[in-house]
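Data deposition worksheet. Section B asks for the primary sequence of the deposited chain exactly as it was used as input, without tags or linkers unless they were present during the calculation. Section C holds the resulting structure in token form. Section D is free text for depositor observations; keep each observation to a single sentence. Incomplete worksheets are returned to the depositor.
Section A, Depositor: J.P.
Section B:
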Amino acid sequence: MKNIVLTGFMGTGKTAVGKELSIRLDLKLIDIDTEIEISRKMSIAEIFKKHGEQKFREIETEMIKKISQNRNVIISTGGGAVLKHENMDILKAHGIVVCLMASPETILKRTEGNAARPLLQGKDPLGTIQDLLNFRKPFYENADIVVDTEDKTPLRIAEEILNKIRDSEV
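Section C:
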């Protein structure tokens, strides 16, 4: 079985859905951001603050290359991982890429008050979410499968992903 790679904006459910898929398929879940934090001994927010987004994206690509070498795992990426064509090429070569989507309002509700979200620390987080979603939309649509997570439980989303994988020739 190919890896299942979860992409999508922050707050779309990658971690929760990844856990459900891991349980249902009895496969290991590997979160790219968590692996970066462990390897760098600092949070993503600290990496952004100390080194900037560009350096973080370089570290992220290194980790994607490393983690993608695994087989039969669930991989959860950071929301901006899709911005680099190199990342998507690597992820697609080793897995089925699933993008989770949600409305800006739902994303804001799910992420409000979370200081670990460096891109949402400004005065207008909803506007930031809308702008980032608009910019990233063509990158997210490059996934093999796109799933709307609005008003769905992680279990229901996981089942939908598995059905789409079974029904497709991905």
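Section D:
The beta strands are 3-8, 28-31, 73-76, 95-101, 145-148.
The radius of gyration is 15 Å.
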